[in-house]
């Protein structure tokens, strides 16, 4: 009898030292119970690895909460505050984060595939190795975020603020970027083939060696952008503003540049074969060694443009003479 009593006493004493508020994955049982009961004030909560799939968490304050590895698949986090939260490795596929605040959040290796992130503030957040394929990011703020190498193929970023964002080597093929702000963004070696970028603001952006083949850039702002070596075959830049842009060594084959502004642009060594420059303004542009074979130059302005060594069809000989281009005598006329 005494032996049984001693065993029971040991069990009671031992259990007193086991944290009663922790569950298997390490999250606080108390915090988990509170959020599942609909508690909206959950700042600094410990919800590591918590199962919150399809949970209704709209307007919940989860600022600075620890949600590392949590299951938030299909969860409703509309207008929730997740500022400074740790969401690293969290599963958020298909989650609704419309107008949520994720400023400064840690989303390293999180999965946000097909998540709805309309109007979300992701500025200064850690998006290293995050997955966002098919995500809707229209009107979101990603200013200053690091998204180098990210896969945003086909993502909806209409009207998003990506100013100063690092998107080097990112895959944005076929993405919706109409009206997006990409001022001073780093898009070096990024894939933007077939992207919809009409009315976007890419002024001062770094687009060196970027793939823009077949992209829609109608009325886009690319003033002073660096497009050196960019591949732009078949892109549509109707009425685009490329004033002062660097297009040296770029491939502009069959590009539509009707009525575009290329004042002071640098086109040294660019391949402009078959380009449509009807009504475009190339005053003071540097077209040294550029290839303009089969180009359409109707009503284009070339006043004071430098055409040294440029290859131009003979049919434009008299037209360019009247334009008072520089180094007219050095133009290489082709049939």
Polypeptide structure, described:
With 335 residues, the protein is mostly loops. The protein contains three helices and two strands. The protein has helices spanning 2-16, 29-36, 317-322; strands at residues 311-313, 332-334. Strands 1-2 form a two-stranded parallel sheet. The model is unreliable at 7-25 (pLDDT under 50).
Fold topology:
Elements: H1 2-16, H2 29-36, E1 311-313, H3 317-322, E2 332-334
Parallel strand pairs: 1-2
Element-by-element helix/strand order: HHEHE
Q: Which band does the percent of strand residues land in? A: under 5%
- Radius of gyration, in angstroms, nearest whole number: 28 Å
Helix count? 3
* Strand order in the largest sheet: 1-2
- Poorly predicted regions are 7-25
The structural class is little secondary structure
Largest sheet: 2 strands, parallel
Give the overall shape, derived from the CA principal axes. Answer: rod-shaped
Cα separation of the termini: 112 Å
What is the strand tally? Answer: 2
On the 0 to 100 scale, the average pLDDT is 92
The share of residues in helices is: under 10%
Index terms:
two-stranded parallel ribbon, little secondary structure, 335 residues
